[in-house]
Amino acid sequence: MDLGDAARIVDDLYAEKRRTGRSPRKKLVVIVGNGIRRIANILNDDSVKQEARKRRIRFRSRAFQEFKWRLFEYARYYTAYSLPTLGHAVIHRLVKDGICRDVITTNYDLCFDAIWSKYPNLGVHTNPVLAPDEYNWDGYYSPANIPALAPRYWKIHGSLDYVVFRERIRGPRLQIHRLPRFPISSNQPDLAKAFKLNGLAPFLGYESSCHPATAIGAPSHLEPTFVPFIDWTFDNIRDLFDREISAVKAIIQNTNEVAAVLLVGFRGYYNNLDSSDPWNEELVPVLDDLQSKGNIPLLMAVHNNQYSQRSDPESWFMRRLISAGSCEHFDAPEQFVEALFRDNSQRFPFGYAKGTHSIWRSHYFLTMSEGRHV
To answer: What is the rounded CA–CA span in Å between residue 128 and residue 247?
Structure first.
């Protein structure tokens, strides 16, 4: 699928909606990686290590943990309150118009989270995997039994907006909590000591009794500090996100409900020589199967920095899409969305999407004082 093919699919979906007066039966699925915005790349493990080395901070030391925490907090605040890209605005429009139901991201940043919170009438459900009698951990999850056409937002590698207390001996018990609006300077045991507490982890006794399907640990069983609830530990423990990943795999394989898959800023690292490589993108084998069978058309759009890695052994999936004419590359997300949705599509309301982005740019996302702070 090239740009022209993708534009025709988008136009057909809008035409079906206009003809029937309701959302099309098949919809776009959009998968977003860190190429959609530069800020996502500062959280890459190699970038963090490189910045630490510049400051002569020893890897895995307490000073390194503090440095990493401050970097995460910067990215959390910045992406929650600064301007999203035009690419985000276009995806927001696709969701609003009922052309896209599922937005899937491997990113930890909060650009989309900020958009959904500003448009609550969209009714976007985040990680809808919860069974009855499960605790939703400050809104990190949603119930699985949401309305049939409700839009879904999947963060399959975690979020900067949440922290987790883990068990000392690794097991199923953990606690996930949303961080406050303001940045937190530290997550070290010194905080607990200063406030004469036994540890930083609260005990959710009442919630534990109300939600019997959720295992909630006691303070004595949990690590004394909290860490970001993201897939970024230098060990990449992704079992915390198994349910989200499995649900997303099933979604993109559903030929009855998916018109096409659009990959934005997602190059699809996958080490074929080692299926247990912790950096493997779990969706790649499923996407490659779709590409091979031709059941669901795919279009990949990557940043030029990602495209420059096309010769790497782990970029084999991107090379396959390049060979098939299904890979575009760009200097900025604006270039790609303009090429697809402005230059090739006849029906996508690009002017409205750009107008929304102009409103965000002028005043909607930040107050003046907040802008200076960011």
So the answer is: 9
